[in-house]
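hey so i finally got around to running the thing on that chain from the lab meeting. sorry it took forever, my laptop kept dying and i had to restart like 3 times. anyway pasting the input first so we r on the same page abt which one it is
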Amino acid sequence: MNSRLLLLVGLCAGCAELDPYLPKVKFEELRVNDIDFEKADVDFVFNVENPNPLEISLSSFSYALGFEQIELLSGDNEDGFTLEASAGSELDLPVSVTWENAWNTVQATRGEDVVDFGLDGHFGFDTPIGEARIPYSEAGDFPAVRTPKFSFETVRVASFDPFGMTASVEVDLGVDNEHASSLFFEAFDYNLSLGGNQVASGLIGDLGEIEGATNGTLVLPVDIDLLGVGTTVYEALAGNGNVAIGLDAGMDVDTPFGLLPLSIDETGNVSVESD
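ok and heres what got predicted. didnt touch it at all, straight out
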């Protein structure tokens, strides 16, 4: 019998079971490392306590992650992790969740900033008397990021000067915010086209707020040089009509998960109205 096995047997002398000498697994936290409107990179952080005066290696590991009791991801791994003797060790499970895949599988509730997660599996530890498998099952809240949806509502002409060949318009942008919290749209860097021609570009520091669980409106104010916009656009802005519109923009969105970058490229056809 080798010395490591003798030591464990000695420790267990008079014990009814081995359990007191097995590593103890405790879930510590969900650590968000990176998050945006495409995905979240997180660590599920465990503390593993080794009560024995000798190192123990991780021999196997499995996990299954689900949202709202529907499984999304699963896997297994043997990564050579070693528990220090008579000490606690941090063990991180890195997971990347792509929102498109998640919401194609699970319906996140409108008006909520989080979804319920469930995480279960096992840790297998290489002890002197063979592998000891310790199951775990944890639950909690996972951030539920949904991209705000933009649409064109109307273009309103605030002023039209045919002699100075300028027009001031306001583009009403419909925005659907599925979160519980308000979203704030900042550093709005845009290019606007009407009738297939770019008519304006600029940077707006604060475009506005859309309250939680709301279909709201952001107003984009634009000054247009009428020279070169074309007859169709000129006539649409001069009187009521319809016009093709395109908006290419990048922005920062202040969310309950921090400031997240967002790019949009929208096209459509809108009515033009005079104030």
